[in-house]
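Why run this: before we spend reagent on co-expression, it is cheaper to look at a predicted model of the complex and decide which construct boundaries make sense. The entries below are exactly what would go into the expression plan.
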Amino acid sequence: MTYDLRPIGRVESTLTDTALAPRQADEGAPEAWLVFEPDVGEGLRDLVPGTDVILLTWLDRADRDVLLVHPRGDTTRPETGVFNTRSPHRPNPIGLHRVRLVAREQNRLLVSNLEAVDQTPILDIKPVLGEVSER
Amino acid sequence: MTYDLRPIGRVESTLTDTALAPRQADEGAPEAWLVFEPDVGEGLRDLVPGTDVILLTWLDRADRDVLLVHPRGDTTRPETGVFNTRSPHRPNPIGLHRVRLVAREQNRLLVSNLEAVDQTPILDIKPVLGEVSER
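The model came back. Tokens follow.
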């Protein structure tokens, strides 16, 4: 049994090489544009600059057969289960990113600190819960 | 262009009715078992009880055509974009849950406070990192 993901948009970023991309957002990731398909535009209503959101992406260049990895690719460290790491290489390579909305132009959102590379498919946006548990 | 998700396991829970399931984990969600496929078992290495993890699920009973929703289903509140909510009904219905690992039995993990219903497909497990940990 499999399920079918339909990307709702793409990342536009100056990062183009996965080997050079930061491993985590707080390690020097740049601003990037999230460019949404016109037919999901209504779903962006009330997303306003200045707030943080959770962005889910599909890391389409990942190797899906990986189950054991060296943490952070450091072969001097013992292998661990991939579900104990944030490696992009995993059976369902879904990227999870907390980003700040910086600006909006219709169906395009500018976000800070995104370590995903250019043209990465976007799957979903969710509000951060915790401070605001209401939604 | 679409991508195919292959579930790595299923939720076993006493929650069976999506209409009765809590909207958020902190609203009375029960413990549940995560039962993994034998062929991904190696990926669970080093996941130990007592830690929190991010669980991604596929909310397979969701309506994927929804773009506008009343927050928390309350029709007295104005509609907002689905990406501004945690509604399960959305184009790619990926559930994002922060859960605590309570116990482990080989390829089964017992977790606390999971609002997903019985037989929900499991997509991924990730460690909590800094502030990306928000549910």
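The longest strand of chain B covers residues 94-105. Strands of chain B lie at 3-5, 9-12, 32-36, 52-58, 68-69, 80-81, 94-105, 108-111, 121-127. Bring this page to Monday's planning discussion.
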